[in-house]
Design a protein that fits this description.
The protein has a single domain, classed as P-loop containing nucleotide triphosphate hydrolases (Rossmann fold), CATH 3.40.50. The protein contains six helices and ten strands. A hairpin with a 4-residue loop joins strand 1 and strand 2.
Length: 227
């Protein structure tokens, strides 16, 4: 759906007392290819989540520039980027049903009622959560809430989807099933997807491109031959 390009992007965490700064990202130049599944890997604290936050607009870059299909989006707010970001917390609205949670961004955008119903039902079917649509989040497991967050992102049909450890709360069987469904949806819709994960199996099963990071920098990119 879209290509994202980062040029010499840096983010610094500053300590006011010591008057020092530590680079969460340092001089990152990276192109995230249109319509592919990119998996970002690296040790804890290497900058993977910071990378997603910068792409989504949740966190501003201190240096460098970001482009989406050659358009400079460096200073654009999150709601103007056409990017959906699913965090590790995946907190649903507790007073809304699963259906209403998934439908929320569509209602906010003023989509017609029938279109909302059709799109919510379609994504719930794709992710196998149709039986949960009438339930409240408090009765869902953490894994089910994680799938709900994924559904809420996908239903908006964003240009780019950013997923931070999206399978962490899923049991092994559910994890395999949701990864398969996500891959099918990504290929069918030509989605640009970026996944942060610690799990090597995620990379081997999902990635078209693998990006490795360490100490806030990109240390390598690898385009898999079978894609």
């Amino acid at each position: 759906m879209s290509t994202i390009r980062l040029e010499h992007v840096s983010v610094f965490h500053r300590d006011v007392r010591s008057k020092t700064a530590v680079a969460a990202l340092f001089d990152v130049s990276l192109e995230i290819a249109d319509g592919l599944m990119t998996v970002v890997q690296g040790p804890s604290g290497c900058g993977k989540t910071t990378l997603l936050k910068v792409i989504s607009g949740v966190l501003a870059a201190d240096e460098g520039a970001l482009y989406k299909d050659s358009v400079d989006i460096t200073t654009d707010p999150p709601d103007k980027r056409g990017v959906a970001y699913v965090t590790q917390e995946h907190t649903p609205y507790p007073h809304l049903t699963v259906f209403e949670n998934i439908a929320f961004p569509l209602r906010q955008s003023g989509a017609p009622v029938e279109e909302i119903r059709r799109r919510v039902n379609a994504v719930a079917h794709d992710l196998d959560i149709s039986p949960l649509l009438s339930r409240k989040p408090r009765v869902l497991s953490k894994g089910q809430q994680q799938v709900l967050a994924l559904a809420r992102a996908i239903v908006k049909r964003p240009d780019v989807i950013l997923l931070d450890e999206p399978f962490a709360s899923l049991d092994p069987l559910r994890r395999t099933h949701i990864k398969t469904r996500l891959r099918d949806m990504q290929r069918r819709g030509g989605l640009t997807v970026v996944i942060v994960t610690h799990d090597d199996d995620d990379a081997s099963e999902l990635a078209d491109v693998i990006v490795t990071m360490d100490n806030g920098s990109v240390t390598g990119t690898h385009r898999r031959q079978n894609t």
